[in-house]
Write a structure and sequence with these properties.
Elements (H helix, E strand, L loop, with lengths): L5 E4 L5 E4 L5 E3 L17 H23 L9 E10 L5 E10 L5 H14 L1 H6 L5 E5 L1
Parallel strand pairs: 5-6
Antiparallel strand pairs: 1-2, 2-3, 4-5
Length: 137
């Protein structure tokens, strides 16, 4: 079992630091949402996208191994996380995961991605709570 702990201060225009100080980032509200979008700072959606992409890529490795398929090291997952108004009020998130696995046919990659979507903790946490689109490129 592993637990990550991060303390945020100042909300979307503040600062976040992990308990081990490895993650230490300034936060800014994106300009497209009416914030200052300060250079050199990130936002919660970028942090979520980074975590989801990395976790999903790891789950793809597990899925591929279970299918006796070797993933090339050059495979990538790009997560685009969207924030917008939720139909029931407030805001909601959506995500698109773009999966690129050079050297493997798209059908095989799709099967790996579908299995990874079942295994990935981020996918499990978001299932039924936000739309997640898998796109094999």
């Amino acid at each position: 079992m592993y637990t990550a702990e991060v303390k945020a201060t100042g909300g979307r225009n503040g600062h976040a630091v992990s308990s081990d100080s490895v993650l230490d980032v300034g936060l800014t509200f994106p300009k497209s949402l009416g914030g200052p979008g300060l250079p050199g700072k990130t936002n919660p959606e970028q942090l979520f996208a980074a975590g989801y992409a990395a976790c999903f890529q790891g789950a793809m490795g597990l899925a591929a191994a279970g299918m006796d398929v070797k993933l090339p090291e050059s495979n990538t997952v790009t997560a685009a996380v969207h924030i917008g108004k939720h139909p029931e009020g407030g805001f909601g998130l959506g995500a698109e995961l773009r999966i690129d696995v050079p050297g493997l046919d798209k059908d095989t990659v799709q099967k790996i991605a579908d299995k990874a979507h079942e295994l990935c903790p981020y996918s499990r946490a978001t299932r039924g709570n936000m739309e997640v689109k898998l796109v094999v490129v």
